[in-house]
Design a protein that fits this description.
alpha/beta, 357 residues
């Protein structure tokens, strides 16, 4: 990189500055040859939210083409998880999080099984994370098109299970408090030899297939509208809350969701390798969350801008820089592996699977 830096180099520096949350004028004190006056316009004029999404997708595509990334996954699965980001209290998105006990928002990431983030957006603490789980999958523009979605307990509800299934996604969350969950029978007469107690009293908790049949066309119209972008999945899932019990759309989504969640819970109970895959995927998402927080060290990790658009850009800048570091680490690992192979060492792909970028 030449000094003073050219325009392209200033974009690289800007990505580092914004991704670390340092701010242009603070960074200029530590980086020779640039000023805050140069870095600030570069961030404001050349880094829109669509541009950042495209840059993230380009990095995801480049990472997917590395042979080493195949040791970690094939890109068919993604884990959705949120990490808390501190903000000032008096702005539109900031709330005091019950979960974290401090004000801020949530950077909600969709993390590929290859450790890299496919999509990131900034959401309020008070919003249930489950309503955003589908949106990130639909807005993902990278070459990786995951069909399996992992999440934690906050990433599921009956409508979310239903919509994910209708859109062709296999939602399999890691769920706590199983004793509070209800399994549903296909008919009142259905009984099971060893697991009948999971379904409650005989004849209770029965799926209403007549309701699903009567509302099937409407159900499919809504799903197609979401797929084609005519309806936002986030807006739809916000409205399909438990308080909408008299709403016909909610009741049919709830009924389909009961079927899908019951099947998924039974799969989870009976398939030990599946449980290990779900845990591994959510662990990768949590590792990304911790890594992205470590990278966003500037200003004590606090987002200093109160504008919701700028907060969204900050979360995306941080995800972009985190992806860039992961990509660079993957290149370094691949280079070390190549050197070891040239020296005669045999590298087992299963061993590489235990190395994290």
């Amino acid at each position: 990189m030449t000094w003073p830096p050219a325009a392209a180099d200033r974009h690289v520096i800007t990505t580092f500055v914004k991704g670390t949350n340092m701010g242009p004028y603070e960074a200029a004190r530590h980086i020779p040859g640039v000023t805050g006056h140069e870095l600030s316009p570069a961030a404001n004029r050349h880094f829109s939210i669509p541009t950042l999404n495209k840059a993230i997708a380009d990095l995801v595509n480049a990472h997917a083409r590395l042979d080493i990334s195949q040791a970690w996954g094939d890109g068919s699965a993604v884990a959705a998880d949120g990490t808390h980001m501190d903000t000032y209290l008096n702005n539109l998105l900031s709330e005091t999080s019950v979960r974290y006990g401090k004000p801020g928002g949530i950077a909600y990431h969709h993390i590929s099984d290859t450790y890299i983030a496919l999509f990131t957006h900034f959401i309020p603490c008070g919003v249930r994370e489950a309503v955003h789980i589908i949106e990130g999958l639909l807005k993902n523009t990278s070459e990786l098109k995951p069909t399996t979605v992992r999440a934690d307990t906050q990433g599921q509800s009956f409508p979310v299970f239903a919509l994910a299934h209708l859109l062709g996604f296999d939602l399999m969350p890691r769920i706590r408090n199983w004793k509070d969950l209800t399994f549903y029978r296909p008919t009142k007469r259905a009984e099971y030899v060893h697991i009948d107690a999971l379904f409650g009293e005989p004849g209770r908790n029965v799926i209403d297939f007549d309701l699903i049949e009567s509302q099937f066309r409407h159900l499919m119209r809504v799903a197609v509208s979401v797929r084609e972008g005519a309806i936002s999945s986030t807006l739809l899932l916000r409205r399909l809350r438990a308080g909408s019990r008299k709403n016909a759309t909610y009741t049919v989504f709830r009924e389909v969701g009961r079927i899908i969640r019951t099947v998924q819970l039974l799969r989870y109970l009976s398939d030990a390798p599946l449980r290990r895959r779900v845990t591994a995927a959510t662990n990768k998402a949590e590792a990304f969350d911790g890594f992205s927080q470590w990278i966003g060290f500037g200003n004590g990790g606090v987002i200093t801008d109160n504008d919701p658009v700028e907060q969204e850009r900050t979360a995306k800048f941080n995800a972009l820089l985190t992806n860039a570091v992961i990509f660079h680490n993957a290149l370094d690992i691949a280079e070390v592996v190549r050197q070891l192979q040239e020296e005669g060492y045999i590298i087992d792909p299963e061993d590489l699977a235990h190395i994290s970028p």
